[in-house]
Write a structure and sequence with these properties.
The complex is a heterodimer of chains A (593) and B (585). With 593 residues, chain A is α/β, with parallel strands linked by helices. Chain A is built from 21 helices and ten strands. Chain B is 65% helix and 10% strand. Chain B contains 20 helices and ten strands. In chain B, the strands form two sheets. Chain B has a six-stranded mixed beta sheet, with helices on both faces. In chain B, strands 2-1-4-5 form a four-stranded antiparallel beta sheet, with helices on one face. Classes of the chains: A alpha/beta (593), B alpha/beta (585). At the A-B interface, helix 2, helix 3, helix 4, helix 5 and helix 6 of A face helix 3, helix 4, helix 5, helix 7 and helix 8 of B.
Amino acid sequence: MRRVRWMWGFVRPVVGRVAGSTGLSAATFVAAAAMMATAGYLISAAALKPSTILMLWVPIVGVRFFGTSRAAFRYLERLISHDTVLRLTARLRALIFSHLERHPDTLIGRRTVTTLDLILTDMERVQNGLLRLLLPLGSGLASSALVGAWLARVDLSLAVTFALGVLVAGIAAPLLALWISNRWHSSRFAIRQRREAGMDDLVRGIDELLAHGEMDEMLARLDSWDEEEERLTAHLDAVRAILDGTLYVGATATVAAVLAEAIELHLTSNLPGTMIAAVTLMVMAAMEPWTTAGPAFADAFEVRRSVAQMVDLAPVSSEEVGPRAESEGTSATLSLALASTHTAFSTHGLCCRRGDVWALRDVDIEVPRGHRVAIVGDSGAGKSTLLQVALGLVAYDKGEVRWFGHPLVGWSESELRRLVTAVPQDTYIFHTTLRQNLLLARSDATDEELMMALSIAQLEDLVSRLPKGLDTVLQDRGYSLSGGERQRLSLARAVLSGAEVVLCDEPTSSLDVETERSFMEAFFTALRDKTVVWVTHRLTGMEFMDQIFVLHEGRVVERGTHRELVHRGGIYSALWTIQREMGSSSFKNGSVR
Amino acid sequence: MRLMRSISRQLPISTPQERRTFLLASAASALAGLLVLPQAWYLSRAVRSVFPRADGAHAWFAALTAFFAVIAARAVLMAVAKWLSQRFASHVKRRIRREMVEQMAALGPVEVRRHPAGAWRTWLTDGIDGMDAYLASYLPQAAASAAVPIAILAFAAVEDRLTAVILAGTVPFMVLLLVLVGRAAQKATDRRFEALERLGGHFLDVVRGLWTLKVFGRSRAQVGIIERVADDYRRTTMKVLRLAFLSSLVTELFTMVSIGLVAVSLGIRLLNGRMDFAAAFVLLLLAPEYYLPIRNAGAQYHAARDGVAMLERHREVLETPIPAVRQRDGGRTPFVSPQGVAIEFRHVTVRYPGAEKPALEDVSFRIGPRELVAVVGPSGAGKSTLLAVLLGFIRPESGEVLIGGVPLDEIDLGAFRRHLGLVAQEPTWFHATLRDNVTWNEPRSDEEVREALVMSGLDHVVERLPAGLDTELDGERVQLSGGERQRLALARLVLRRPAVALLDEPTRSLDLATERALEERVVPWLRERTSIAVVHRLSLALAADRVLVLDGGRLVEEGRPEELLLAYGYFHAMVSRYRGEEVLS
């Protein structure tokens, strides 16, 4: 029911077009049937050798008219149905994206490339389902109804036979086939998913599989899944083959039954002989949509599955995460608040759950404007969650989060993003030009401003090295950047955005020592007068920090300046000792040997 | 035409079984197609027996019985043809998948990584499954689409010359139309479909980069952009389609006009009494069947295009030269003791396919059993390549690698790899339970597993997981961070107890405390075998027995770390920079 509602909500705006193309498709079938019937009538009437050819004039014109109109209907139908599908494509993408946009945390469980790629496949199936299932079904029903009505005018019994044929061959047989094959479809779906996971393992883990001599076993496993899939497919193929044969027999037997009935009517009552061929040919053409639509039911399983996926990914209604699209507060009151507040960011009693684990417990943090604050902790301490909550990317369970004294949910998205930006752990580079990759931070930046930001981020060399400078397409088949370059690009974006606060999520964790050093120098020079929140597990550059918060298992356990914390003798000073030792050869001489 | 030729050249048949299935499927579908002739014949006989004059009392009943016999036979043949075609497609798809996967294994990571992982996954799943239309319909029905029109034409030639002339005469026009209008339109449509794929790419790009867009407040605008871009695409595509569909409109019109022509000419001759009604009715029934293959040409073009494209990809992959050392049966097996084995590089130069500069140049060194060697150097120095050579992932251009005195390319790789353990730079989790991930599906006692977990520091991670060691890793509900994956790989290594341990930046994503604790436990363990560790944080290098310093593919320094520190060369400079950090803070 949820799925039906979802589909309806999704199709509603184009429902007129869907109906239109269904109607045209039905008209195509009717025209074909009418043409064949007229042609049958034509030769029958001719066989009776009427006194003048004028008697045949009407059927001759009829044959031509229906022939041409069929082609025209078909042309229009194809145009409208393609247009409809493309409209639905646009709608579905916008729908899915706007949902993800409002609930970016939906993506957390789906960060793997595989699942993201599947979104496209699912979207395609949903559209195709409309085009290949609903449309033929609708047009088959409509055209059969018209043909049946005409048959009923000739003789009711003919219409009844035809209706029975449609019911059995067109509807009952495919549904039965679908019902029988359902079980095999779901087992095959499961095995295909397993195999896809295996392929994923193979592609990602090829080094380790080869290096450990495990490749043969992996290949054997893949092959056994293939074998299982082939076995299940054989069952499904058998159902399909029998369905094809049945549909054909059903359709042709309907033709034969109608013919036998017409002959009986001709012999016993007064059905004119000219109608025998006409009726037969009409029914023959009218069965065509059913023999072609039936097999499409075989895909119904996958379409249903994909619709379910879409519904899961973007349910119709759900609560929003983070700041609102538009706020109630006006810019004027905000700027007033900005002028008077000294605190950039604060949390009070913040609790946040990730899965079954409390990632943050009672976290109180205050970041004064213009200060540099570090949040330190080992992996799993909740550092990244804290940043995501601060950015409004994930929901939190309890407590308060404020930006410039205003609660996070009271902010409008655009206002908050203008004031706060971030440099992530892994910079995402869009598959477009370097210029566009920068402009997303501020769309109205001039070329000079772009170059300025790049030079602050020490990326001038890159631009001169790129074949087309700012207009070089990055990533994929374009130019790819090194780890250091990616992070600097992120820095350039942050500089360009002009935001007052920059949040950094271990921006140097994927860099080697040398690159890390030069990146940090560039970073702190570029963002001299900004408020910086720097999340890290490495105690590099901590002396630059005005305040350091130490997170451990989701709680703030220590706070203070570098000097204070080192002398306090807690977790921080232990970390500090380790880092000092690891950088020196005393490690080798002292603790290991 | 070019398409036809390229299809015939690469009919995807390679085993006798596939050939047999294919031929049988083609024969059954051609036969089923040809049965349309008797089907039409008996149908017309049934009508003819009562019209224009009634013949015998139940002649029409006999004709209908025969008609039923024909459609029964035809239905069985259709089902058989369908079944065999699907079997054929299934076999070919499975074979292609297997061949591609096996080739991937032979090519090794160096070549496989040249394509993005997503591309491989798409080829192996959707790409191959997308061949269905081509393998199960297009190919097996090719024989029928040729045979049926020819048979109908021959039948018409016998029954009624004029109809045969009309049928034969219209085909060249239609083919001409298809070629003239169709080709240009088809090309335009193909381009639109490519644009559609790019559009899909754009959508995924935006979804992947959602957080970035969000952070810069650009995401909301993207909703409109996505819709607008897709809508623009729709408008331009519809312009193209209006033209492209004209070609099918023209074929359709032409078919209909031709059938009408046949009907009218038959009618006129019936009127003049120069024609038998039964014959006229049969021909009228057969005329649409005659034109069917041409009308279907458009739809089949796409099926063929996708199928041929995938076959092309398959061939390209199979023909890719293999950069890795080949697996050989009956290779030599060097003696490897649990303490390790002597590994020697002699003037090894390595160049990646298509690269100008060698990744390693004239590198020579020797490592013995019970020795931990650290490889250091700036990124791009060839550190990981050194491991790749040793793993047999890439054959050196010149020089030799000796394992226990046996050259690597004469070695039984499978046997050698049983002694290897690797911690890759980006360790992989596999879709399996955490226990299977650590043990490589081998039976290990809980005691052993726990020991390995403690040693690698994975025990803390396991404690946090809902089902502990039996948690299924799926990349969605349970996600391991980079550091956790590294600990997983270390646990795998420890449990395997290899004679030769290779580690590529094993502590890269670990936090300091974990790294420190780990090194204390793992370094002595590494010293008990032949170990090579590529490192970028120098603490592990300082704890190693020996250090190799690479720069620009050359081995620039080699020696014990404390010697190198006193030599004031590359290593000394690196260490001072590394320590400089602490001076700074």
